[in-house]
C-alpha cells in the first residue's frame, strides 16, 4: 500500500481557519449566554426592535429574547460541530468533510445577509467550502480512504525516458569490462562531459513557506485597508462620527454600555487603527525577509504572528479572521521543511 501523501497546504489552511474560528465563536456565544438578561442586552434588543425591518415583525421584548436565546443555542451547536469536523477532516474523514462543507455553506448564507460587515467573513466561509473539494483535496481524501488513485507524475519523473537503460554508461563510451578474478580492481575517472556531476541549483521554496507568505500578504492588505478607512473616519470625519455616537440609537447605547465617552471611543479607534497598520507593515517586512531568506526573517514573522494573535483577542469577533491567519502562518513556518529551508544559506 502506498504511503499516505502529505496533506495539501490549502486543505490544512482551511481546517485550521475553520477550527480556530469556530472555537473562538463558541467561546463568545457561551460568554454571551452566561450574561443573559443583562440591562445592556435588553437595551440593545429594544433598539433593534424599534428599527426597520424588525419593527414590522411586531415582536415583544420577551419573544425577541426567546428567539435570540434559541439562535445562540443553535450557534453553540454549530460552532462546536464545526470545530470537531475540522479536526476530523484534517485527518482524512470523508463524512466530516461533507458536514464541514454544509456548515461553510450555512455560514456563507447567514453572514451574507448581515450586509457589508459580513461580506469578508462570508467570502472566507465560501472559500473554505470550495477548498475542501479541489482536485488536490479530492485526491488526498481518496488516497487516505484507500480508494484507487491515478499516479500523478512529479517534477522529478516528468519527462524521463522510460526506455533508457539504467546500466548504460555515458553516450559514446563503452562499459568497462569486469575485473579479472584475483586481479586488482581498476578505477577509472569519467572524462566525458556528460559524466561530470551537474551543478546544484538553488533549493526550491517549500509550499508551506509560500502559504505562510501569501497568507501574510493577503491578511495584511485587507487589515491595512480597513485600518486606513478607520483612521480616515476618526480623523477627517471625526465630527460626523461623534454625532453618530451621541444620537439616540444602538451606537449610543453600545458606547454607554462600554463606560466610555464618544471622544474616548474615537480616540480608542484611532489608536487601534494605528496599531493595526504598524502590525501590517511589520508583517509585510518580515514576509519579504522570509522570501529573501534573511536568517532572522522566519523568527521575525513568527513574532509578528504571535503579537497578532494577542491583538485579535481584544477585537473579537472581528479578530477571528486575523487570529486564524496568524495561527496558519506560525503552523506553516514551524513545519520541518520550512525550518530546513530557512536555515540553509
From TrEMBL:
Record keyword Transmembrane present: yes
Region (Disordered): 152-203
Listed Low complexity bias regions: 182-193
Domain of life assignment: Bacteria
Keywords: Membrane, Transmembrane, Transmembrane helix
Membrane spanning stretches: 12-33, 70-90, 102-133, 209-233, 268-291, 303-331
Protein's name according to its UniProt entry: DUF4064 domain-containing protein
Organism annotation: Aeromicrobium erythreum
Organism ancestry: Bacteria, Bacillati, Actinomycetota, Actinomycetes, Propionibacteriales
Amino acid at each position: 500500500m502506498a504511503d499516505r501523501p502529505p496533506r495539501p497546504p490549502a486543505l490544512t489552511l482551511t481546517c485550521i481557519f475553520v477550527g480556530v474560528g469556530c472555537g473562538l465563536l463558541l467561546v463568545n456565544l457561551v460568554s454571551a449566554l452566561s450574561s443573559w438578561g443583562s440591562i445592556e442586552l435588553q437595551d440593545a434588543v429594544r433598539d433593534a426592535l424599534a428599527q426597520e425591518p424588525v419593527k414590522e415583525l411586531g415582536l415583544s421584548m420577551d419573544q425577541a429574547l426567546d428567539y435570540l436565546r434559541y439562535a445562540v443555542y443553535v450557534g453553540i451547536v454549530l460552532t462546536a460541530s464545526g470545530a470537531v469536523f475540522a479536526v476530523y477532516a484534517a485527518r482524512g474523514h470523508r463524512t466530516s468533510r461533507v458536514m464541514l462543507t454544509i456548515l461553510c455553506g450555512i455560514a456563507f448564507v447567514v453572514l451574507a445577509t448581515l450586509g457589508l460587515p459580513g461580506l469578508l467573513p462570508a467570502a472566507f466561509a465560501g472559500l473554505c467550502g470550495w477548498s475542501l473539494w479541489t482536485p488536490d483535496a479530492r485526491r488526498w481524501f481518496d488516497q487516505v480512504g484507500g480508494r484507487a488513485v491515478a499516479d500523478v507524475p512529479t517534477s522529478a519523473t516528468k519527462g524521463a525516458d522510460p526506455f533508457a537503460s539504467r546500466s548504460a554508461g555515458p553516450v559514446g563510451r563503452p562499459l568497462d569490462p569486469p575485473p579479472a578474478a584475483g586481479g586488482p580492481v581498476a578505477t577509472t575517472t569519467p572524462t566525458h562531459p556528460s559524466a561530470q556531476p551537474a551543478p546544484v541549483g538553488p533549493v526550491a521554496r517549500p509550499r508551506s513557506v509560500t502559504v505562510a507568505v501569501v497568507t501574510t500578504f493577503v491578511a495584511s492588505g485587507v487589515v491595512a485597508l480597513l485600518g486606513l478607512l478607520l483612521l480616515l473616519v476618526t480623523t477627517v470625519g471625526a465630527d460626523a462620527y461623534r454625532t453618530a455616537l451621541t444620537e439616540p440609537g444602538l451606537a449610543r447605547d453600545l458606547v454607554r454600555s462600554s463606560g466610555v465617552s464618544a471622544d474616548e471611543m474615537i480616540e480608542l479607534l484611532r489608536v487601534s487603527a494605528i496599531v493595526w497598520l504598524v502590525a501590517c507593515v511589520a508583517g509585510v517586512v518580515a514576509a519579504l525577509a522570509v522570501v529573501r531568506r534573511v536568517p532572522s526573517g522566519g523568527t521575525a514573522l513568527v513574532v509578528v504572528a504571535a503579537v497578532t494573535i494577542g491583538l485579535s483577542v481584544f477585537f473579537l469577533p472581528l479578530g477571528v479572521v486575523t487570529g486564524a491567519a496568524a495561527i496558519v502562518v506560525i503552523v506553516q513556518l514551524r513545519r520541518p521543511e520550512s525550518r530546513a529551508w530557512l536555515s540553509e544559506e
